[in-house]
Amino acid sequence: MSAERPVRIAMWSGPRNISTAMMRAFGQRADCAVTDEPFYAAYLAATGLDHPMRDAVIASQPTDWRVVAAALVGPSPGGRPVWYQKHMTHHMLPGFGRDWTDGLVNAFLIRAPEAALASYALKRDDFSLDEIGLPAQADLFDRAADRLGAPPPVIEAEDVLAAPAATLSALCRAIGVPFDPAMLAWPPGRRATDGVWAPAWYHAVELSTGFAPPRPAVGLDDLPDALKPIATAARPIYDRLAAYRLRADSFRQ
């Protein structure tokens, strides 16, 4: 690894996952810069969706996806040798180019759709399958797999919560960086690298000091009727990605 050629990690997640906690973990590494959802403003500007703090988000980032993509393949912040980019898969609209992702190490953070939907419904009351990100996540996974000739790394949120050291060790080995025990704990509070939207979305992670225990499972019958068709459509996509997820012992010597 070098400052001239950083390891750029694009971690692709849907909303209401442990994506911000994962960003905290990588942010604890002395060798790592982090970037928080760089396409959010471009996504909101293109879709017109009314998200919390919409105007502030749009004012805080470039709204041209080309400008964002060019920055993400440029020099790393502070010249750090590792650059962790937290991406939401649903932000990658069909009109946004994806060629830039071919130069990054693409990894995928998944969560059971029933649990993701139950959590997202607490923040927004009208959304589609595309907005929980699984269709775009599968497309991005397939693109990376076709280029590599092998499945790219996939981690499951519940695996991280159940065995953070082992699962993050497996992830680090898969993406080509050494595991750092500093990734397992962090001080509470907000970070300068957090998006301007943090007050609307990051309350729980701001109180955290590490990965929480696994949450109780959410089943289809636990969801409101309006969300059940979305969960049913999402489940086969999730299952296909979950078949490739790294296990804690995936890289045991």
From TrEMBL:
Belongs to the class-IV pyridoxal-phosphate-dependent aminotransferase family. Pfam families: Sulfotransfer_5. This is HAD family hydrolase. It comes from the Bacteria. InterPro entries: Class-IV_PLP-Dep_Aminotrnsfr, P-loop_NTPase. It comes from Roseiarcus fermentans. Keywords: Amino-acid biosynthesis, Branched-chain amino acid biosynthesis. One of its GO terms (biological process) is branched-chain amino acid biosynthetic process.
